[in-house]
Amino acid sequence: MEAIQQTPNTAKRVFFLNPPSFEGFDGGAGSRYQAKREVSSFWYPTWLAQAAALCPASRLVDAPVDGLTPEDTVRAAGGFDVLVIFTSTPGLKNDAQLAGLFREAYPRMRIGMVGPHCTVLPQETLEQCPALDFVARGEFDYTIAEIAEGKPLPEVAGISYRSSGAIHHNQDRPPISDMDALPSVLDVYKRDLQIEKYYIGYLLHPYLSVYTGRGCAGRCSFCLWPQTIGGRTYRTRSPENVIAEMARARDMFPQVKEFFFDDDTFTAQLDRAEQIAAGLKGLGITWSCSSRANVSEKTLALMKASGLRCIMVGIESGSDAILRAIRKGITTQQAREFMKACRKLGIITHATFSVGLPGETKDTISQTIEFAKEIDPDTIQVSIATPYPGTEFYEQAVANNWLVRNSLVADDGAQQVAIAYDNLSGQEIFDAVETIYNKFYFRPRPILRIVGTMIRDKDVCRRRLREAREFFGFMHDRKINKNKKTA
User: Fold this and answer.
1) Contact 217, 230 (CB under 8 A)
2) pLDDT over 60 at 438, yes or no
3) Which of 43, 262, 270, 449 sits at 20 to 30 Å (Cα–Cα) from 201?
4) Distance of alpha carbon 278 from alpha carbon 276, whole angstroms
5) Element (H, E) at 304
6) What are phi and psi of 122, to 5 degrees?
7) CA distance 173 to 145
8) 400-428 pLDDT, tens per residue?
9) Element (H, E) at 52
């Protein structure tokens, strides 16, 4: 299929789409977790919103949040010239079929995909999706803006495209250096999204999330975004820019109860984090962020005094050997001190753990269980370690024959075990997720915490009851799927 030739400097209407997916799938344009969660949650499609903000004649549709079917999204795109679909490794098959529906309905529409999978496997993505004209590699903000302006595809840096039956790969686009030059996503949020539909279990509702920077200087071998789109350098907006945007966000969205800084590691530059905190203090907002477990009590106290309520922190494992193997950059002792400081200051913590990282054994799983109970975060998330293409973990898995299947999620979008080790089977990794949840939550302290929040707030009570139903339903379905596979 030949690419459609367009005239330069002719503005195009761009339809940005976070596509329909598995029910409850949390792997879209604003989530780093590429699978269905135990409790339904929706992250903002911030990456798409940022690109949409650069295209005046644009619309952003978040199909999973709005409950739209593929047919709904095709109808909604009538009159647009360019379609940009955010895809992921687990969702590519469905997204390719969806692109085919758009091609049938709008033969003249220029259709492209963006996201980590396109960045790592552009040739394969175009081969698997015959309806596509192009895929954007890496950061796609200015890439899509140029296509929207009518720039011919051979002249657009950072894309791979189809022309006359052949696939061509243009030169890479350099990472964005001036983050302050990017327009705010707030206007796109206001125009296209209904923020009350977005919720995360550990954040107040309604919440609103933004990025204050991209990339992460951490060297974690398993983390998808820094190794594909974001990069290993933390490129940031200035504290003044962030503070001004948050003042505007407070006024634009008075119903928001909590603002979340969704950077890979918001606290990576401690001086900057403290400057932003100081500026937020006068705004009177409640906010939360992501962090590594290496922030001092002094900095945490400054952040708390400025309105910080909750920190999402990646702990991953209770084994120092595993933390070294994945180059996490923290130790269990640092995590102990960090969690102790947060508890002392009254900062809520949501800790994430991964099961099945290189070096995992039955003993290290037991260590993680005991460590999680010891540091006692307010809430936890337990994931199966998944080797996504483009990560060092994936390369290790291929080199060491750890891969046991290519499909990373089941037909319902739930995580599947893609790896196994000589001394730890895939089934043991799968079972460990439920074991950790049970051992952590079915203790007096977590139960009393949850019940306490439900008693104090009726809205929280309703949310926790819904989340409990979803959690136990998810675990029940998980058990059924396991029994089917082992029967």
Assistant:
1) no
2) yes
3) 270
4) 5
5) helix 297-305
6) -65, -40
7) 13
8) 999 987 776 666 666 678 999 999 999 99
9) helix 46-52
> Cα separation of 299 and 293, whole Å?
12
Amino acid identity, residue 264? D
Among residues 84, 100, 107, the alpha carbon closest in space to that of 3 is found at 107
Give the tens place of pLDDT for each residue, 178-198: 999 999 999 999 999 999 999
What band does 28 get if pLDDT is binned at 50, 70 and 90? low
Compute the distance between CA of residue 455 and CA of residue 4 in angstroms, rounded to an integer.
60
Q: Is 35's pLDDT higher than 80?
A: no
CA dist 265 and 292 (Å) reads: 7
pLDDT in tens, 458-474: 777 777 777 767 666 76
One-letter amino acid identity for 209?
S
Please tell me the predicted confidence (pLDDT) of residue 477: 64
pLDDT in tens, 296-307: 999 999 999 999
Residue type, 165: G
DSSP β-bridge partners for residue 353: 316, 382
Which residue type sits at 276?
I
- CB-based contact 14:53 (threshold 8 Å): no
CATH of domain 200-442: 3.20.20.70
DSSP 154: G
Query: Which amino acid, 175?
Result: P
Instruction: State the architecture of 14-169 in CATH terms.
Output: 3-Layer(aba) Sandwich (3.40)
Residues of the chain with CATH 3.40.50.280: 14-169
Nearest Cα residue to 107 out of 74, 76, 137: 74
Is there a contact between 308 and 279 (Cβ–Cβ < 8 Å)?
Answer: no
**Domain span(s) for CATH 3.20.20.70 in the chain:** 200-442
Cβ contacts of 251 within 8 Å, gap of 6 or more:
none
Q: Quick: pLDDT tens for 330-365.
A: 999 999 999 999 999 999 999 999 999 999 999 999
How many Cβ atoms sit within 10 Å of the Cβ of residue 117?
A: 27
Q: Bridge partners of 58?
A: 14
pLDDT for 38 equals: 63
Contact between 215 and 233 (Cβ < 8 Å): yes
Question: Using CA atoms, how far apart are residues 192 and 62, in angstroms rounded to an integer?
Answer: 9
For the packed helices 297-305 and 332-345, what is the interaxial angle rounded to 10 degrees?
Answer: 30
Strands 82-86 and 58-62: unpaired
Residue 159, token pair as written in the block: 């894309």
Q: DSSP label at 16?
A: E
For residue 29, pLDDT over 90 is answered with no
Q: What is the pTM of this model?
A: 0.91
